[in-house]
Request: fold
Amino acid sequence: MVSAICHHITKILAEHCPEARIEYRKQCEQKARDILSGSLGRLTHEAVEDFLNALDSDTDRAGGSKRLGRFHPLLSVPNRENIRKCDPKNLDALFSAVFRSEALDKVDVLRQGLKGVGNGLISSLLYLKNPDKYNIFLGTLSKGLLTVYPDKRSTFNYSRDQFDKNYSAFNDLVNRLRSECSLVPQQVDIVLTVLAEEAEETGSYCYARET
Reply:
C-alpha cells in the first residue's frame, strides 16, 4: 500500500507543487510566524488580520499568480467576520497558550465563545511553531487522510470537543504519511485536499486499497 499511495502522491506533487509555490508558502508562513511572535501578549485586531492574510496566502497550482485561499473555507469571509468580532484579549490568551506553550489540553476551555476559531485555526498555531512536528487539522484534510488509512476512521473525529485527543491522533497519522512518502510540510495540505476531492468524485478509496 505504501508504494502505491506514494506513487500516486508523486503525481499529485508534480501537478500541484512546483518549487515556486512551495517557496512562496514558506515565505508567507514565516511572515505569519513573525507577526505572532511580535504580537502575542498585546494582540490587536489589526495583527490578527495581518496574521490571517499571511497564513492564507498561496499561489495558483502552477506557482504563478499570488492569491488568498490556501485554507478555504477556514479563512473565508464568514469565518473572518466571526474572528473579527472576537475579543482580542481572549484570542491572545488562546493563541499564547497554543503557540507559546503547546497547551493542547487547554484549548477546549479557552476557545469557548470564540466564533470562527475552530480546529483549523488553532492547529495552524502549532504548525507555525514547528511545521516539522505539527500539521493543520481541517475537515477536508481529515477526509483526504482517511482515503489513505480508512481503517483509522475511529481513531479521531473532526469536532470541537476533545481537541487534544482528536488532534493528536490526526497529527500522528499525518506524520506517518509524511514519513512514508517524504512530504515537506508545505505539500501536505495540497496532497490531502486532492485526495479528498478525488475520493468525492469517484466515491471510493481506491488509492488506499491498491497493493
Remarks:
- The chain has eleven helices and two strands.
